[in-house]
Design a protein that fits this description.
The complex is a heterodimer of chains A (365) and B (344). Chain A is 39% helix and 16% strand. Chain A has 365 residues and is an alpha/beta fold. In chain A, the strands form 3 sheets. In chain A, strands 2-1-7-8-9 form a 5-stranded parallel beta sheet. A 4-stranded parallel beta sheet of chain A has the order 4-3-5-6, with helices on both faces. In chain A, helix 2 runs parallel beside helix 13 and helix 3 packs parallel to helix 17. Chain B folds into 2 domains: 142 residues, 60s Ribosomal Protein L30, Chain: A; 165 residues, Phosphoribosyl-aminoimidazole Synthetase, Chain A, domain 2 (Alpha-Beta Complex), CATH 3.90.650. In chain B, the strands form 3 sheets. A 7-stranded mixed beta sheet of chain B has the order 8-10-7-11-9-12-13. In chain B, strands 1-6-4-5 form a 4-stranded mixed beta sheet. Chain B has a two-stranded antiparallel ribbon with strand order 2-3. Chain B is globular and about 70 Å long. The mean pLDDT of chain B is 91. The chains are: A alpha/beta (365), B alpha+beta (344). Chains A and B meet through helix 1, helix 2, helix 4 and helix 17 of A and helix 8 and strand 13 of B.
Chain lengths: 365, 344
């Protein structure tokens, strides 16, 4: 933090001169109706926060996809974790975003006010430390996230086993991005011309993971998160479309290497194995989730704590599912910004810091 | 003191001898002044004029943080609310709710930093109260302060005073207090060299009033940050406000911390900053006066006030918006939800 270099770097990527240069290049292109989906919630936020949607010409539509891990977590999983949090002797550890997300009966914030011990952590290792500091409690970490988060959770589980931290558990609802994109492409109502692919996830899984999409004639460009990155990536996509190409390109070359991050992938593979997972909006997708391998079963919250969340259902009137697949906009939802508001959310997309509804609410309406 | 444990006990709050000893040894000694020293049931003040009167509870966690503590904050928080009315802070009362078992040394340290802050702000602590609650019924110490300040003739500052054409001036970099607290919170292994900006703003406001008595709005962007202050002012004044994001002063480390943690710097708390709405013709003078004070050295013009119906507004209705790096506009919403509890 004392090193000024990375920050100067950040300024470069927000330089109005460079950003507007890319914008000019884009606006002087020949008009051609184009729909580009940004797959990552961080991209969604950046698009809204930097006013990119307003700045690009009308013929270019940017739509948001299922890239917010909190948002795609099914209500059944949220309710299950809340039930675990309500068990006596349990400390429920979670990233802050999940606190505000509503469950079928109530959310974690209310669970806390009803006496559950809910602790916000900023990394999985903090949750592991919590377990060591509270040997008389069972610490359950809510493992929500994509390939970016899963390796760090795997590392914590690995360390828990090594150090015999037997009161550390993970409820894994981790999800994998490529299977979801392939499932998206099979939706008849989805009409996207190209994907703006996530930077951080791709830094782990590598660009080749999107090859099947390119083979279905969908250009994929892996983008960084600054305004300049996004504008540059949009131009790269439009170049491909104009040239009739469909390939995987890396704009975020400062973060993404050809093979991804082998150490992270190895750790993830050592601890987790793929499983079917339920996605809000997309339903159950085979091989799109991660569950703990047999050797780590002692840390698997689902095996250790039996809870009943059979009452679980999706909130009525909420169209988060359709928003997550890009078929509807937040402003199409009759609950948006009125019945569903950050202070009294109906769906997770309104309160997650990467949620599409939150992005629209905070920056665009 | 007649207690060898060095910790606050329930008996310190019963009103008996231990209470008297504690009040005399800690608060009476540190805050001594003619009015307080009478130790009557209430302070007697001889006042004439127009006054601002305010109260503020302080529950910040942790109670000691880089750049300040709950004692300093309890003084600056209240005197700054007075200063935002253009008032010269005069008198403060302080009520302490202390958790049983709190080290006396900590209490002394807090009283000392209150005395220092009161000295900087030019106020006297003239009344007080001490209660002790059982362990677990409070988190070490909560401090409530109330304050009275004199509003000079001709000064009329209100959140409803913003007018189209006004210039928006910010007194310095935002977010220091918020990041200072976050970096200290449990669960955050986060090495940021950022200190809270916690400081009394009365002196800065006096300089600004000397430069122009026509300050339309003053607000200290504490909880909810600049985003909340601008939205409150826009709503109260029925105007729209536009700021240029790139002009908002911010330390590099605060920006980096926000990027890492996914926080919006516009929503981070400040405890020693103010935002002023000033008629355009006075803005240069006011800005210059601010920059002459250490607390306003990095002051900057960050935006201006539009009419409620300005055609450039993104939503077509009164709002606060920002010019982005793209040259487009985006909304700045009123912060909502549990952004960061117990920040002050």
């Amino acid at each position: 933090m004392t090193d000024p270099q990375p920050l100067a770097f950040l300024d470069e990527f927000r330089s109005p001169r460079h950003v507007r240069g890319q914008l000019k290049k884009l606006t002087t292109r020949q008009e051609r109706r184009t729909r580009i989906m940004e797959v990552c919630g961080t991209h969604t936020m950046a698009v809204s926060r930097h006013g990119i949607r307003q700045a690009v010409p009308d013929w270019l539509t940017l739509i948001s996809g299922p890239g917010c891990p909190v948002c795609v977590t099914a209500n059944r999983d949220i309710d299950t974790f809340i039930e675990m949090a309500m068990l006596p002797g349990v400390i429920a550890a979670t990233f802050g975003d999940m606190l505000k997300v509503p469950g079928t009966r109530f959310g974690l914030a209310e669970a806390r006010s009803r006496g559950a011990q809910v602790q916000i952590v900023y990394s999985t290792l903090d949750a592991l430390r919590l377990a060591r500091e509270n040997p008389d409690k069972n610490v359950i970490f809510f493992g929500v996230g994509f390939e970016t988060t899963a390796p760090t959770v795997a590392a914590a589980i690995h360390e828990a086993r090594l150090t015999g931290t037997n009161n550390f558990f993970v409820f894994s609802v981790h999800k994998l991005v490529p299977p979801a994109l392939e499932a998206l492409c099979r939706l008849p109502e989805l009409a996207v011309d190209a994907f703006l692919c996530p930077g951080h996830v791709s830094a782990v899984i590598g660009p080749h993971a999107y090859q099947p999409l390119a083979e279905q004639h969908i250009p994929c460009v892996i983008s960084g998160f600054e305004p300049l990155d996004i504008m540059h990536s949009l131009n790269m996509i439009l170049d491909q479309l104009e040239n009739g190409e469909a390939k995987v390109e890396v704009q975020y070359s400062r973060g993404v290497r050809a093979g991804g991050n082998p150490a992270a992938l190895e750790m993830m593979d050592a601890v987790f194995q793929p499983c079917a997972a339920e996605w809000r909006g997309l339903g159950t997708i085979p091989g799109s989730g991660l569950t703990l391998r047999e050797g780590f079963a002692a840390h698997d919250a689902l095996q250790r704590f039996r809870v009943d969340a059979s009452y679980s259902r999706e909130p009525s009137g909420c169209i988060c599912g359709a928003i997550l697949t890009g078929s509807k906009l937040p402003t199409d939802c009759r609950l948006f910004a009125d019945v569903c508001h950050p202070d009294h959310p109906v769906g997770p997309c309104m309160v997650s810091s990467e949620g599409t509804c939150a992005a629209y609410y905070h920056y665009e309406i | 003191m007649t207690n060898s444990s060095g910790k606050i006990q329930m008996a310190h709050g019963t009103g008996g001898r231990l209470t008297r000893d504690l009040v005399a040894a800690v608060f009476g000694k540190k805050f001594s002044n003619v009015i307080l020293d009478r130790m009557d049931d209430a302070a007697m003040l001889e006042l004439e004029g127009r006054f601002a009167f305010t109260t503020d509870g302080h529950v910040v966690s942790p109670i000691f943080f880089p750049g300040g503590d709950i004692g300093r904050l309890s003084i600056t928080g209240t005197v700054n609310d007075l200063a935002m009315m253009g008032a010269t802070p005069l008198y403060i009362s302080a009520g302490f709710i202390i958790e049983e078992g709190m080290p006396l040394a900590d209490l002394e340290r807090l009283a000392l930093s209150m005395r220092e802050a009161a000295g900087e702000a030019g106020v006297q602590v003239v009344a007080g109260d001490t209660k002790v609650v059982e362990k677990g019924a409070a988190d070490r110490i909560f401090v409530n302060t109330s304050g009275i300040g004199l509003i000079p003739p001709g000064v009329h500052i209100s959140g409803a005073g913003a007018r189209p054409g006004d210039v928006v001036i910010l007194s310095g970099p935002i977010g220091d207090h918020g990041i200072a607290i976050i970096s200290q919170r449990q669960g955050m292994d986060f090495d940021v060299e950022i200190k809270s900006d916690c400081a009394p703003l009365g002196g800065l406001v006096r300089r600004m009033l000397d430069a122009s008595p026509r300050l339309n709005v003053l607000r200290d962007p504490t909880r909810g940050g600049l985003a909340a202050s601008l939205n409150e002012i826009a709503a109260a004044s029925r105007v729209s406000v536009e700021i240029d994001e790139s002009r908002v002063p911010m330390r590099a480390a605060v920006r980096a911390a926000c990027e890492l943690l996914g926080l919006d710097p516009l929503m981070l708390a400040n405890e020693g900053k103010l935002v002023a709405f000033v008629a355009a013709q006075d803005a240069g003078r006011v800005l210059e006066a601010m920059r002459g004070s250490p607390l306003g050295a990095e002051a900057a013009i960050i935006g201006n006030v539009l009419g409620a119906e300005d055609p450039h507004l993104p939503s077509g209705r009164p709002c606060v918006c920002a010019r982005t790096v793209m040259g487009s506009r985006r909304i700045i919403q009123m912060p909502s939800g549990e952004h960061l509890p117990r920040i002050c």
